Amino acid sequence: MFDDLEKTQMIHVQDDEDDYLEEEEVVQPKKVVKKRRKLSKFGVFLIRLLLVIALGVAGYSGWKIYSGLKAYKEGNDTYEKLVEYTKAGDTSGMGVDDGVDFTSLKAINEDVVGWIRLDGTIINYPVVQGYDNDYYLNHLYNRNVNWMGSVFFDYRNNNEFKDRNTAIYAHHTNNGSMFYTLESYKSQQFYDEHPSFTFFHVNRKRYEFQAFCGLVLNADEPFMQLQFEDDEEFMNYINEFAPHSTFSSNVTMTKDDHMVTLVTCTDDFTNARYALFCKLVEVK
User: Fold this and answer.
1) 202 and 113 in contact (C-beta within 8 Å)?
2) DSSP strands (E only) in the chain
């Protein structure tokens, strides 16, 4: 009997041990470890190449910004110094001949034909005329290379306003200098406050450019006409665009008048230009 009881206890003990072993032998799921794919030699080369390109683009962009700021500073400094040769900013009580020291200006650049000023704005510059319409696009008055350029007559014009229409050009710069201000004539208020320019000519005469029409035009469609066969063609040219002006003016043009057209770029569309048409009036 005792033997049977002992066997029975041993069986129970054995069963408990088996259960314990079964619990211990439960297999836990293995974590899946993803293997990192190694870049091929070409992949490494491509990444390095893209990095070099990115650094190059960043460096070039930085250089362009620096160059642009340097060019603007050089240009602004040059023209600020030239203002010392003129009293065009304040001619009260002075004779016309004393407005600008053209003798000193000629010593710097013999291409000078005059000085243009628009009161209350940054436009206060010497005006030159070259042998083409390209040189002064990227040369300052002192002939230093600089894409800020100069204010210049069309090379095809007579430099004493003997043509029916005289064209004067300058850049539309990002820093607001040169002819950037012309774009402001899209506003009637601006026109009302700045209806005319003063021009001191190297021949010691003084003129007013009385604005009568402003237009946004496409440079791909030639709009500049300097010579006219007769009075009728001249008046037809004026009457064609005058009704579309960006501002209203009381200035009238007759067949006996001459005009000056100031031209610069504008951002309205690709190759857009803003042209300001003015009546030429000699100040006695």
Assistant:
1) yes
2) 112-117, 124-129, 151-153, 165-169, 196-201, 206-218, 259-265, 272-282
Residues of the chain with pLDDT under 50: 1-26, 63-64, 66, 88-97
Say what the pTM is. Answer: 0.75
pLDDT score, position 253: 97
Residue 152 to residue 135: CA distance in whole angstroms: 10
Query: How many CB atoms lie under 10 A from the CB of residue 163?
Result: 18
- Going by C-alpha positions, the residue among 144, 76, 136 that lies closest to residue 108 is 144
Using the CB atoms, write b or e for 28-37: b if 16+ within 10 Å. Answer: eeeeeeeeee
The confidence score (pLDDT) of residue 22 equals 47
Cβ atoms of 114 and 199 within 8 Å: the answer is yes
CA pair distance 258, 254, nearest whole angstrom: 9
**Contact indicator for 205, 284 with CB cutoff of 8 Å:** no
Instruction: Report pLDDT for 139.
Output: 97
Residue-level pLDDT at 38: 64
Q: Output the DSSP codes for 6-50.
A: HHHHHHHHHHHHHHHHHHHTPPPPPPP-PPPPPPPHHHHHHHHHH
> For the chain, what's the residue count?
284
Cα 156 to Cα 7: distance, rounded to the nearest angstrom = 129
From the number of C-beta atoms within 10 Å of its C-beta (0-12, 13-18, 19+), residue 272 rates as middle
Phi-psi region of 63 (alpha: psi -120 to 50; beta: other; left: phi over 0): alpha
Adjacent-strand bridge partners of 278 = 211, 260
Domains of the chain: 68-282 (2.40.260.10)
Q: Quote the CA–CA distance of 242 and 253 in Å, as a whole number.
A: 10
The closest of 168, 196, 213 to 282, measured between CA atoms, is: 196
pLDDT at 43: 65
